[in-house]
Design goal:
little secondary structure
């Protein structure tokens, strides 16, 4: 994160190679209350 602007620098991998975000399941239309779904079809 840039200390001056507060913006993420996603090209800077000095702390971690992966950056992840999270949000509540309620933000996803038709999401399951359990957060689980059926086995994917091949």
């Amino acid at each position: 994160m840039n200390d001056e602007t507060g913006e993420l620098d996603l090209d800077d991998d000095t702390l971690a190679e992966n950056t992840r975000g999270a949000y509540p399941l309620s933000f996803i239309p038709n999401s399951s209350d359990t957060g689980r779904g059926p086995i994917p079809k091949i």
